[in-house]
């Protein structure tokens, strides 16, 4: 199935207390922005897994609450009116730093297809909660398919990217056979 997200669409990842609000241009090549709400105890990056975006810088601009952003092991608390930028390729994780909710806008530069990538993840969380463990961990096969379809958008901080690419390429066909699929297909890239 492939669909577009309408402006104003709200998707919730109840597993890690993360809500995505899609109110910015969908396929702008320059940058991709998503409004995010983290609930009390909420985290990003798939249950707060240390991850990287190899080709895009990621900026967190906080509008309310406080966000802890850990970049290369160094923790920073970002409050309203301030931002933190994660340079491309830097291992990082982020989480709500207060009791209550934190609101921020995350922007990826260049955009790649990060809005499609995160909308796909939000739709899977809402439509297929049975795919996730009780702790909210996504199944390896579903993630392998997603990371394979959206190559070079996000990887775990370890093992090396070339090994992850190989593993995801090998597991993607198995994932399809097991019934996993993308809710939003990547946009075809010019040759």
Fill in the keyword field for this structure.
globular; single chain; Jelly Rolls; 2 domains; alpha+beta; 191 residues
Describe this structure in words.
It contains 4 helices and 11 strands. It has 191 residues and is an alpha+beta fold. The protein has 2 domains: 9-109, Jelly Rolls (Sandwich); 131-177, no CATH class. The strands form 3 sheets. It has a 6-stranded antiparallel sheet with strand order 1-2-3-10-5-8, with helices on one face. Strands 7-6-9 form a 3-stranded antiparallel sheet, with no helix packed on it. The protein has a two-stranded antiparallel sheet with strand order 4-11. α3 crosses α4. The radius of gyration is 16 Å and the shape is globular.
| First and last CA, distance | 23 Å
Percent of residues in helices comes to 10-25%
Structural class: alpha+beta
Our estimate of the beta-strand percent is: 25-35%
What ranges have pLDDT less than 50 throughout 5 or more consecutive residues?
Answer: none
Radius of gyration from CA coordinates: 16 Å
Mean pLDDT: 92
Globular, elongated, flat, extended or rod-shaped: what is the shape?
Answer: globular
Main pleated-sheet profile: 6 strands, antiparallel
Helical region count? 4
Instruction: State the CATH class of the largest domain.
Output: Mainly Beta
Order of strands across the main sheet: 1-2-3-10-5-8
The CATH topology of the largest domain is what? Jelly Rolls
Q: What is the helix/strand order?
A: EEEHEEEEEEEHHEH
User: What is the count of structural domains?
Assistant: 2
- What is the assigned CATH homologous superfamily of the largest domain? Jelly Rolls
CATH architecture of the largest domain: Sandwich
The number of E-state strands comes to 11
């Amino acid at each position: 199935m492939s669909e577009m997200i309408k402006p104003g669409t709200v998707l919730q990842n109840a597993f890690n207390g993360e809500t995505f609000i899609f109110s910015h241009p969908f396929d702008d090549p320059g940058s991709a922005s998503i409004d995010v709400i983290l609930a009390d105890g909420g985290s990003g990056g798939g249950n707060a897994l240390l991850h990287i975006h190899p080709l895009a810088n990621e900026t967190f601009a906080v509008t309310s609450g406080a966000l802890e952003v850990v970049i290369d092991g160094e923790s920073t608390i970002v409050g309203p009116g301030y931002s933190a930028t994660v340079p491309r390729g830097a291992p990082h994780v982020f989480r709500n730093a207060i009791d209550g909710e934190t609101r921020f806008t995350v922007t990826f530069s260049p955009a790649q297809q990060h809005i499609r990538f995160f909308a796909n993840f939000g739709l899977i969380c809402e439509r297929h909660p049975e795919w996730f463990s009780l702790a909210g961990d996504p199944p390896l096969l579903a993630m392998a398919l997603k990371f394979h379809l959206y190559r070079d958008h996000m990887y775990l901080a370890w093992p090396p990217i070339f090994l992850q690419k190989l593993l995801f390429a090998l597991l993607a066909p198995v994932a399809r056979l097991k019934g996993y699929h993308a809710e939003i297909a990547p946009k075809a890239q010019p040759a």
